[in-house]
Amino acid sequence: MNKQIKNIAIVDDDEISRIILYKYLILEKQYSTKLYSSGEEFLESTSRIIPDLVILDIEMPGVTGIEVFDRMRKIKELEDVPVIFLTGKEDKNTVMKCIGRGADGYMVKPVNKDVLKSKLDEVLKRYNEFRSNKTILMVDDDVEFLKISKIKLSKYYKVLTVDSGKTALDYLTSHRVDAIILDYFMPLYDGRNILNILKHRESTKKIPVIMATALSQDEVINACGDNQPDAIVTKPINIEELLSKINMLVRTE
Amino acid sequence: MDKMIKLKENNILVSELHNLGVDAEIGLKYCGDLDFYIEVLRISVESYKERKTALALHVGEKDFKAYTILVHSIKSGAANIGAMELSSLAQKLEEAGKRNDYGYIMDNHDFFLQRYIYTMEGITEIIGLKLSDCGANDIKEERQVSLDEIKNSIEDLDYCLQELELDRAQELVDEMLTYMVAAEAKDALKSIKAAIEHFNVEGAKEKYGILVNLLALM
After folding, report:
1. What's the CATH code, domain B3-130?
2. What's the pTM value of the predicted model, to 2 decimals?
């Protein structure tokens, strides 16, 4: 499993439970942890950096863990974040409720340190394996941008890089990718024209496209007309944000 | 918070970059962590030498379209590392190019270029990189290889270019440069290497065609 720092969100109204989990996780240098005392607090204060995993207590006053989970799956930035439920009950119904909902796992309180570590490893490994089987095609005439992005993104995905839209289109006549990151401003075939072709081709119209551009989102939306990209990132790009968007689109697709 | 602590431990780096007009905290915001930021600085410096030459060439040939595309890239790259003044200068030149104000470009290019050189040479010194021609010092011992080995390598290279497996293609080309083949074939291989480094797959395939013809004649 890659050794990048993983951001873990712990959502539990029980302060002692939060502190215990926090203390277990800080011993593991690969985790950075944020604590939330309620589902509302978590959903309302989600920062720009999306957590890599959420540990979510089921039995909470107000918005329950199940409701938080359901709402997460309707929020674009959170819909693909793995969730491990925390429950005080080990009965079959509760377990089935967790799994049936689509959670990535569950743990029964009180949580043992070894169980916590092994569950996190298992879920994150499964999630990383899912991502590493996906291919991202990056199309940009800016070699520096391609090099920089490839370094980061290759830790999670297979990344193909080309400097022209024509090369990308030729490749896609006989190959499939899981997402395309497309520069807007390129010589000869610009991003908008490439996008237009992609959205009209039967073999490529469903591939999610992220448009990378120094233009504002409104300018891109106006310029692209009927054929909109699935997401837009503004250059200079925050790589973590780009990664979040890719994660979201690849999982949805 | 961890990032800020690490950044303050490197306050020599931060203050020296600041003297060049590079705001490391902005750069860190885009890059996420210090190690990656330094890697991005290194990549920026690697691109700089070629871009400096290209800027002068485009201005000399009055190819303002190519110039505009290049300053567009420099603008984003500069912002990525926190070189905001440089990015702003590039943006103004890009905007001038887009509105066909070539007089503005001619009047302001020299100042921009000086600023670009000053910033990049300064970063080079700070991060301890010595710029050198790519591959100039990578001289490996040549070896005799069989025709079969050459044929296999050629086929592998073709496959990698078709599949966009550019990292593997790069490795193959580096390996083939150690083969004892004619100078023209070596030149073709070096051209393929340069194309791959620029993610220019079409260019690499074109040079590959030349290489195949040259090797067929041997």
Report:
1. 1.20.120
2. 0.72
